[in-house]
Design goal:
Number of helices: 2
Number of strands: 21
Strand order of the largest sheet: 7-6-9-15-11-12
Strand content: 35-45%
Structural class: mainly beta
CATH topology of the largest domain: Jelly Rolls
Helix content: under 10%
Shape: globular
Number of domains: 2
CATH class of the largest domain: Mainly Beta
Length: 276
């Protein structure tokens, strides 16, 4: 087993997984968001049962989440931190989000391709409105053919918690770029608009949402749902990482069979750094 020596104090330590022995896992994937400010990550697999031989794990990229009501003519609202800070009191506000014809868009992107977003909804939408997610193919925004797990009644997006997922476009089809180079913004107004190398998605609704729609959490799902690294019981994995653009926002985990638990410990890796 490889060992990484960290030549620095680990600082504040906290668990991101459920208390009392880790997050319970089954053969259905679970997303475990990381604490903001995490710089060192420890994964400890345990309690294998019911035929489980390995825990399958993948890292999920940190997301950029930007909302515009004027097609980026002015600086968008940057909800990247609110979407991933694990706080129920800081919210992504989609209240009265309008249609593309009215120049309202939600841009969600990362430095790596991702196959969807886990969405938690606090104040749900009750207005019939269908979500369309598009990706940049190098020359146009193309429908990514998303499956909307937040939809209720067959036509009401953001009506419940759920995953918005899609099949990741083939290599070279989903093009990483800046929103300026794409042409959605005439200049780098506001945060991340001019950031190069981002795999952007553009979210559009078919009808204006309710006057109060709030979301405490957006977390990316890993690129693939079939390719994971595998962990055997009681053998931990430790790694240095960052919890911001270009880094990791969450860990995705499941079992090959039966059940198990995964402890996810986070460190700020500095005595002067603190989780928020």
């Amino acid at each position: 087993m490889a060992t990484e020596i960290i030549a620095a104090p680990l600082g504040e330590l906290r668990a991101s997984s459920a208390t009392g022995g880790g997050t319970a896992l089954t053969t259905a994937a679970t997303t475990i968001p990381l604490l903001p400010g995490t710089k060192f990550l420890q994964l400890i697999p345990r309690k294998y049962a019911g035929g489980c031989e390995v825990i399958k794990v993948a890292t999920c990229p940190y997301l950029l989440v930007l909302k515009t009501a004027d097609a980026l003519a002015t600086a968008p609202t940057d909800y990247s931190s609110e979407a991933q800070d694990l706080s129920a009191s800081t919210l992504v506000t989609l209240s009265s989000l309008n249609t593309a014809a009215e120049l309202d868009f939600l841009y969600v992107g990362a430095t790596l391709p991702f196959r969807g977003v886990k969405v938690d909804v606090t104040a749900t939408n009750s207005t019939a409105s269908v979500l369309t997610v598009k990706y940049w193919n190098g020359s146009a925004w193309a429908d990514i053919s998303d499956t909307d797990g937040t939809i209720t009644g067959g036509d009401t997006t953001f009506g419940q918690d759920g995953n918005v997922t899609w099949t990741v476009p083939a290599i070279g089809t989903w093009v990483a770029d800046s929103l300026v180079d794409i042409g959605d913004a005439s200049s780098a107004v506001g945060p991340y608009v001019g950031q190069e190398g981002i795999y952007w998605t553009r979210w559009e609704v078919s009808a204006q949402l309710d006057a109060s729609v709030t979301i405490p959490a957006f977390h990316a799902l890993s690129r693939e749902s079939t390719q994971y690294w595998e962990m055997i019981s009681e053998i931990p994995i430790e790694m240095s990482m960052t919890n911001h653009l270009g880094g990791i926002g969450a860990v995705e985990a499941l079992t090959d069979a039966g059940t198990a638990s995964l402890i996810v410990n986070c460190s700020a890796k500095s005595p002067t750094s603190r989780f928020v």
